[in-house]
Design a protein that fits this description.
361 residues, alpha/beta, Rossmann fold, Dehydroquinate synthase-like, alpha domain, 2 domains, 7-stranded mixed β-sheet, globular, binds nicotinamide-adenine-dinucleotide, binds zinc ion
Length: 361
């Protein structure tokens, strides 16, 4: 078991990563000194619930004296909605959750963001515990961004709200579908490129295209999480450094939308990282051999590095929507070397077109 600490301006908390942790959660809650009479609601989605993880947790909580109730939402990003947030408020009321009460999110980023937003806003904030069950959630469960979508776009309503604790039982990852695994690996590779050369070298030598044994997962997730923790500690509310986490995402987000979500988030980010590496090479910011290493590692994890069949102008349309939101040009994060990235607003349309060509030829 590994315990990592997060210290931000608003909260200090631990990320506990290891095998067999689901049933230890009552013990961790007691260590935090959380009262049992404040109420407790577990939130999960129907895929995760069918695998029995929330049931196992609920049973061990009840055995230890917590009056844990369970709310299950449909799996999928559409559940990150204001109407389901309201449904959760109703369940919180029914479960008699008070201000000293607890919301426990058991699932991937969707459940974490939705339950986290409900926890941040119900009674102006109750305790939140994140129990991630996807690989991507090593990213989403740390750092305190919670929120839901509006019909006009993703993640448009939300808050910065740090959890009291993150418990990552890596055993749950064994049931993750392969495509979800690979999508999560894109974010692991992203964290390695941003700030963990040792992890990058490890992935070059021993790629993890599918879930390995629990000890291996524990080590890898701890290293990737370490990068996110360091950045969130330095910049809790995305004033500067936190933008580094958007490596691969400027193009990735546009690509995800242009593909009408045929590409999942991680796949789009993989192509985005490749194209952003191409831009960095054309600017002489990045050694071409390092770009090739990034491409190789992505490929070794069965991630796409070539844009799907579409006109590059389609991606441009979505990049422009992004620009409108920021009001000051495209913000790109480009790799300088493994372990170092830099933010720039100087990327031009021509740079993107050339990178598209380099990535498709
Ligand atoms: N808050 C943040 O900082 C942040 C960061 C990155 C992404 N996100 C958000 O995270 C979401 C994506 O997260 P995700 O990729 O975890 O998606 P997800 O929560 O939809 O999970 C992916 C799929 O895997 C299933 N699943 C979950 N755990 C499983 C398990 N152990 N075994 C088998 N199946 C399992 C889910 O039911 C779902 O069908 C997006 O909404 C994104 O906006 C948030
Ligand atoms: Zn991402």
């Amino acid at each position: 078991m590994r315990r990592l600490e997060v210290h931000t301006h608003t909260a200090n908390y631990e990320i506990v990563i290891g095998s067999g942790l689901l049933t230890q959660i009552p013990h961790f809650l007691a260590q935090l000194g959380l009262p049992q009479d404040g109420g407790c609601l577990l939130v999960s989605d129907d895929n995760v619930a069918a695998l029995g993880y929330p049931d196992t947790l609920q049973a061990s909580l009840r055995k230890a004296g917590w009056p844990a109730e369970l709310a299950v939402v449909p799996a999928g990003d559409a559940s990150k909605s204001l109407s389901l947030t309201e449904a959760l408020y109703t369940r919180l009321l029914q479960a008699k959750v008070r201000r000293s009460g607890i919301v426990i999110a058991v699932g991937g980023g969707v459940v974490g963001d939705l339950a986290g937003f409900a926890a941040a806003t119900y009674l102006r904030g109750v305790h939140l515990i994140q129990v991630p069950t996807t690989l991507l959630a090593h990213d989403s469960s740390i750092g305190g961004k919670v929120g839901v979508n509006l019909p006009a776009g993703k993640n448009l309503v939300g808050a910065f709200y740090q959890p009291r604790l993150v418990v990552y039982d890596v055993d749950t990852l064994h049931t993750l579908p392969n495509r979800e695994w690979r999508g999560g690996m894109a974010e692991v590779i992203k964290h390695a490129v941003i700030g963990e050369p040792e992890l990058f070298a490890h992935l070059q030598d021993t790629p993890q295209p599918s879930c390995g044994d629990s000890a291996e997962m524990e080590a890898m997730i701890a290293q990737a999480s370490g990068v996110k923790i360091a950045i969130v500690q330095a910049d809790e509310r995305e004033a500067g450094l936190r933008m580094h986490l958007n490596l691969g995402h400027t193009i990735g987000h546009a690509m995800e939308q242009a593909s009408h979500y045929q590409l999942n988030h991680g796949e789009a980010v993989a192509i985005g990282m490749r194209m952003e590496a191409e831009i960095a090479v054309s600017w002489k910011w990045l050694d071409p051999t390092v770009r090739d290493q990034i491409i190789t590692v992505l490929r070794q994890h069965h991630l796409p590095v070539v844009p799907p069949l579409m006109k590059w102008e389609q991606v441009l349309t979505y990049l422009d929507v992004d620009k409108k939101h920021s009001g000051s040009g495209w913000t790109f994060v480009l790799p300088r070397e493994i372990g170092r990235v830099e933010v720039t607003r100087e990327v031009t349309e021509e740079d993107v077109r050339a990178a598209w060509q380099a990535s498709t030829s």
